[in-house]
User: Fold this.
Amino acid sequence: MILNLDAVIRSFTPWVTAIVSLFFTASVFRQYSRRKKIHQFIWGTGLLVFSTTALFESISEIIGWNMPMYRAYYISIATLVAILGLGTIYLFNQRAGRYLTLYFTAIIAALIIATLDADIDTQKLQERTVGGSAMPADVRIISLFLTIPGSIALIGGALYSWYLTRRNYNLLIATGALLVASGGSLSRFGIEWALYILELLGIAVMYIGFIKSEEEIRKR
Assistant:
């Protein structure tokens, strides 16, 4: 029964996640087309990366991983929260956003170089692993310099917005971001099945928060 449940999670969850995240991406870019705010464009870009990550996971469950696809997947999964967090910083302070852009650009460049040169554990790929467990430890350490500050910016920014406005949709966005970040953290400790579930729950909760924020803006 457990194995069957695991098969269901692996087969269907990433496809649902990809669909939800693509709708979310389209909604944010539509908002950007109306308001032309740079943080909206960055959020849309981060969500597009998230959608790409979910699509990689979906395809891997059908045909398995190959080296180029897994390298591209790891780069995307390691950078998506950083990009979303960067958008949140731009929302509050564009000067701080520009400094953080320089920092993230340098780390992402280092991550890409390390990932393309990494000695990937092929046994892990044959097991259809998710997350970064097939990557060597030195590459995974680099990703922490993206995921940790990105998560702090994204979650902290949503909580700070709630503190300022007391609008509950910010709590939904913070909760969704925390779920996504938790999935990545659990995968580091070998709990890989949780990544798919928490990605879906996280992006769905964030999307609900976004929809509610749009409703609030229309009322105002």
